Amino acid sequence: MLDKNGIARRIAREVKDGYYVNLGIGIPTLVANYLPEGVNVVLQSENGLLGIGPFPVAGEEDPDLINAGKQTITTVPGSAFFDSALSFGMIRAGKVDLTILGAMEVSETGDIANWKIPGKMVKGMGGAMDLVASAKNIIVAMQHVNKAGESKLLPKCTLPLTGVRCVKKIVTELAVLDVTPGGFRLLERAPGISVEQIRNATAGKLIIEGAIPEMVL
Questions:
Q1: Sequential pLDDT tens for the chain (217 residues)
Q2: Residue 190 near residue 197 (C-beta atoms within 8 A)
Q3: Would you say 99 and 21 are in contact if contact means Cβ atoms under 8 Å apart?
Q4: H/E run at residue 36
Q5: Catalytic: 46?
Q6: Can you list the domains of the chain with their CATH numbers?
Q7: Which of 14, 37, 46, 209 is catalytic?
Q8: Structure letter (DSSP) for residue 112
Q9: Theoretical Cys-Cys bridge with 107: which of 1, 111, 144, 181, CB 3.0 to 4.6 Å?
Q10: How many CB atoms lie within 10 A of CB 89?
């Protein structure tokens, strides 16, 4: 079973040379620490930054450099700063090749719910709806089950939707899955995790074809 850093490390393998990538709040921000050597990508933060680097080491944080989740970050040579209007102009114009988001629920048809739990206070939806409507590719980084052990990969989302039929791939602590017209297709399993464990943790339709390899991290 993977921890949050393991999920981020596996997702980093999906980032291709030349990509512009938006990292959402939570697990996705950790992807900046695990980008493969020799892969030239530009990480974008919706609060107005192109060129995010790895997280700073303790004692070297700059409180003026933060990401959309208000975490301190570093920049790389050639980084650019701008206002959020220009940032969302980039997003809405389809300039982002890959968006990596967290989620509370994903449906077997690729719907995503990640901004609100009814009855709980929420500060706002943030930029998630713009991102899922505009990105060319969307990967979700999430836990496979909630704290009660209930699946978060469902036939149909129960929470308010952020986007419809937009998620392409999911990486959880248990598995890597593609979202296909027929349901969740199991691609890889986490080290030490069986196909049966993944099947039991997935409420939506799970497609299993042949032997399922373990993830390479």
A1: 899 999 999 999 999 999 999 998 889 999 999 998 889 999 999 999 999 999 999 999 999 999 988 899 999 999 999 999 999 999 999 999 999 999 999 999 999 999 887 777 776 667 888 999 888 899 999 999 999 999 999 999 999 999 999 999 999 999 999 999 999 999 999 999 999 999 999 999 999 999 999 998 8
A2: no
A3: yes
A4: none
A5: yes
A6: 4-207 (3.40.1080.10)
A7: 46
A8: E
A9: 111
A10: 12
